Amino acid sequence: MSSRAHPVDGDLSPATDGGHIPMKSSPHRHKVGIPPKQNMCTDFMYTFKETFFHDDPLRDFKDQPKSKKFMLGLQSVFPVFDWGRNYNLKKFRGDLIAGLTIASLCIPQDIGYAKLANLDPKYGLYSSFVPPLVYACMGSSRDIAIGPVAVVSLLLGTLLRAEIDPNTNPDEYLRLAFTATFFAGITEAALGFFRLGFLIDFLSHAAVVGFMGGAAITIALQQLKGFLGIKKFTKKTDIIAVLESVFKAAHHGWNWQTILIGASFLTFLLTSKFIGKKSKKLFWVPAIAPLISVIISTFFVYLTRADKQGVQIVKHLDQGINPSSLHLIYFTGDNLAKGIRIGVVAGMVALTEAVAIGRTFAAMKDYQIDGNKEMVALGMMNVVGSMSSCYVATGSFSRSAVNFMAGCQTAVSNIIMSIVVLLTLLFLTPLFKYTPNAILAAIIINAVIPLIDIQAAILIFKVDKLDFIACIGAFFGVIFVSVEIGLLIAVSISFAKILLQVTRPRTAVLGNIPRTSVYRNIQQYPEATMVPGVLTIRVDSAIYFSNSNYVRERIQRWLHEEEEKVKAASLPRIQFLIIEMSPVTDIDTSGIHALEDLYKSLQKRDIQLILANPGPLVIGKLHLSHFADMLGQDNIYLTVADAVEACCPKLSEEV
After folding, report:
1. Whose CA, among 160, 196, 388, 539, lies 20 to 30 Å from 546?
2. 3-state class (DSSP) for residue 626
3. pLDDT tens digits for 606-631?
4. Residue 520's Cα: distance from chain center in Å?
5. What is the bridge-based pairing of β-strands 519-521 and 507-512?
6. Based on the number of CB atoms within 10 Å of its own CB, is 119 exposed (0-12), middle (13-18) or buried (19 or more)?
7. DSSP states along 395-434
8. CA distance 269 to 265
9. Beta bridge mates, 145
10. pLDDT tens per residue across span 482-524
């Protein structure tokens, strides 16, 4: 048979037929081992543990006295009791510098992000005071900086506005915001407590890249209102409605003083960011640039009284710390369901961003974070935050990057930031009265630009076209329809990809690498030769009810195609079909029925079915179902090489 490669579906799984060993006949072949039978309870407990407790969280508690177990339990819930014991002045010095640096960045950002959520600017500052304190006690990441973020603020504002108009019913809108924050926290904490953190992994990296990029553009477009000084602006977030609103106001609604302020300071912010990227030692330049911009622009507006010329300013900003808001949360009525729905969506997005950031910086510093504990910490800080006039807070990538570059050592940097925000709330808020909205717009535009990751999108396109569809679908969904539709598209395409991979697994035709006993995909290795009279196929997935019929039909199609080629080339007919089972990690009753149907079909055509290297779960189920007896123990081999070696004498006898 020709050694030319035939077209195949792909090669996803590594073959496991051994190393490059010269083929030689062996009088004794090893039989496929049958694992000892497990009772149902043991099997269920193993599966349950691997699903929910794969990290064995209680391993440190084994063989410990009660006092030690209590302390370990306390440290598990409040990691501050663990790292706090070894805290010293050197670490505090790094945390102090980092905390002051991220505080200078967060204060102007928080004021702007609150406006994205259609809330008074003070709520942005409130959300950078209480939540970071809670996280510092309960979180396990040393580098993540907590507070409001642009994407979650926009998402929350969009979802809330769809239910209640913040202009006509500001009080109800605020109550719904606190209710959504409360249930966002409940969602996050519940996912962590019940160890369901793996659910957030269903939102693929490609979908997140597209969603974040689209959200960044949407956020930047929303800032044109403040950047251009437009008073009447659309409430919609799609790009067409926003640009239409901008150009309609071009003749009479733009304010040249506002544009001058916004453009000047945006140029300054972008330049400072460029300087920070060029030299890592100057990381503090882009970090402190937003606060400098606010101070200079506020002073300029105050001196020139540009607000009298149409430049819009922040105006009054309440002084004082967070008031209690527990009594404002809806626990009954129609708005309760709305708050739950909005909270679940906002909480999931916030969680995805925070866990991704935490894992990124943990990998850079070579330490581990517990994803489930992180979720509990993030959830509790939002639950407490909702009771103290905060809206949804999470990990901020820009602030976390600055925190990392500034040399933070522990979560104390978040405490330092909270103290600075507290002092601002107590003494400095009146100074923001003349801060122009244009500078806040420039700060937000500058902050969201890094969310547009073009290089990541190009890489996704090169590596996986289906992933790119998820990326671009989420991107266009956000910018042309709405944030929630973009998110829905991202989740839908991610699930569709999972279903496609489960229901349509890859298969491959295998050939022998010359002068070895190794069998590999003939598309990947064109030099591999196919043994006359034998067709070897590998299935690269578990065989379940969702894909069993497809696997059977695909194998039969491979066989049909190969028989046509053999007939055209006047070569010996196919007499043996070998299925390489090593990538098949599991099989259910539907899968076994599919193998039985395939076996019966092949018997009618005088073709022998042979299985090679089924795993412990698979061979155990094949024996329990008696399919192994139907097939014959002599037709189950340890390797493809063993199977082919056994087939060759039979072929020569018939010839």
Report:
1. 196
2. coil
3. 999 999 999 999 999 999 999 999 99
4. 33
5. antiparallel
6. buried
7. EEHHHHHHHHHTT--STHHHHHHHHHHHHIIIIIGGGGTT
8. 6
9. 396
10. 888 888 888 888 888 888 888 999 999 999 999 999 999 999 9
